[in-house]
Design goal:
InterPro entries: ADH-like_C, ADH-like_N, ER, GroES-like_sf, NAD(P)-bd_dom_sf, QOR-like. Pfam families: ADH_N, ADH_zinc_N. The chain is α/β, with parallel strands linked by helices and about 325 residues long. The chain folds into 2 domains: about 180 residues, Quinone Oxidoreductase, Chain A, domain 1, CATH 3.90.180; about 120 residues, 3-Layer(aba) Sandwich (Rossmann fold). Strands 3, 4, 5, 6, 7, 14 and 15 form a 7-stranded mixed β-sheet that branches. Strands 10-9-8-11-12-13 form a 6-stranded parallel β-sheet, sandwiched between helices. A two-stranded antiparallel sheet has the order 1-2. Strand 12, helix 7 and strand 13 form a beta-alpha-beta unit. The longest helix is centred in the middle third of the chain and has 21 residues. The radius of gyration is 20 Å and the shape is globular. The two termini are about 30 Å apart.
């Protein structure tokens, strides 16, 4: 007879505002073939979770558990699993259903955690750090002397990207939404902080760099920032649109082509298609954390039961850096 586990879970019955996130106790089956039962210790909140919750991205059936990233300890392994054992510390970043105390995950979605990486650190930097790595190591290889523009530089991806790019020798211009986030962006390695609520982006960049142009733009905001950002690029520059927090931007392909601007709209899975590539990327990410390139990681922590509050705070711009849930 299969064992049944009890787990606190945050689910939605329909898409909508943060209030649709409801906590309850649910049953979890023991793992099947090539599955792992994880007792989760830290669960990441990413902006894509909001897009699943509010209806930007479709969900095929309800009730549904959103979220895709967490870290924890292996409680039980299913048949056919040889690479991971009970008691191993693991994390994942692309397995929908993470807002739970315990859950089943396919073994191929997991990465083992080194002893010096805590659960909170793993949940704070895995998806965001691998995204930052993809942006500045694979899509546009940041080098000394580059001038780059990073939007939402006090946010989860933006903060890691800014620190890492600065360590690679770039001059980092970063935007934040409010004056309250200026100091945070500066601490993240941003050389020049632009406050979007009070400063004109185009005019301020021109004031900062004069006749120079930006080499690459990293934009996770979208509609509110992208159109002006591409106008600040040099001919042949790179525009990376990796998020749409403010909506889908207008893309003038004729303008981009005329100026030979390279537009990239990446998905992390495209750049990390298999376990081997994920292992190499994760190793480089953790090495960057160890050598100080990513600075100090101090996530904002909410209880799993308060996922709705965390979503509301993230949408209202009240948070900085990484956000995690504790079961």
């Amino acid at each position: 007879m299969k064992k049944i586990y009890k787990s606190g879970v945050v689910r939605i019955e329909s898409q909508g505002p943060p209030a649709v996130l409801q906590y309850s106790i649910q049953e979890v089956q023991e793992p099947g073939a090539h599955e792992i039962l994880i007792s989760q210790k830290a669960i990441a909140i990413n902006f894509v979770d909001i897009m699943y919750r509010n209806g930007t991205f479709p969900i095929m059936s309800f009730p549904a558990t959103i979220g895709g990233e967490a870290a924890g300890i292996v409680e039980h392994v299913g048949s056919g699993v040889t690479s991971i054992k009970e008691g191993d510390r693991v994390a994942y970043y692309n397995s929908l259903g993470s807002y739970a105390e315990k859950r089943l995950v396919k073994v191929e979605d997991l990465v083992k955690l080194p002893d010096d990486i805590s659960y909170d650190q793993a949940a704070s930097i895995l998806a965001k750090g691998l995204t930052a790595r993809m942006l500045i190591r694979q899509i546009y290889a940041v080098k000394p002397g580059d001038i780059i523009l990073v939007h939402a530089a006090a946010g989860g991806v933006g903060s890691l990207l800014s620190k890492w790019a600065k360590a690679l020798g770039a001059t980092v211009i970063g935007t934040v939404g409010t004056e309250a986030k200026r100091a945070i962006a500066s601490d993240n390695g941003v050389d020049h902080v632009i406050v979007m609520e009070t400063q004109d982006l185009g005019a301020k960049v021109k004031e900062l760099i004069g006749n120079q142009r930006i080499d690459a733009v990293f934009d996770g905001v979208g509609k509110a920032t992208f159109e002006i950002s591409v106008k600040l690029l040099k001919n042949g520059g790179t525009a990376v649109l990796f998020g749409m927090a403010s909506g889908n931007p207008h893309l003038d392909m004729n303008y981009l082509s005329k100026r030979q601007i390279r537009l990239v709209r990446p998905a992390l899975q495209q750049y990390l298609p298999d376990m081997y590539s994920r292992e190499l990327a994760t190793r480089e990410l953790f090495d960057a954390w160890r050598d100080g390139s990513l600075g100090t990681i101090t996530p904002t922590v909410y209880a799993l039961k308060d996922a709705a509050v965390a979503h509301r705070d993230l949408e209202e711009g009240k948070t900085t850096g990484s956000i995690i849930l504790h079961p």
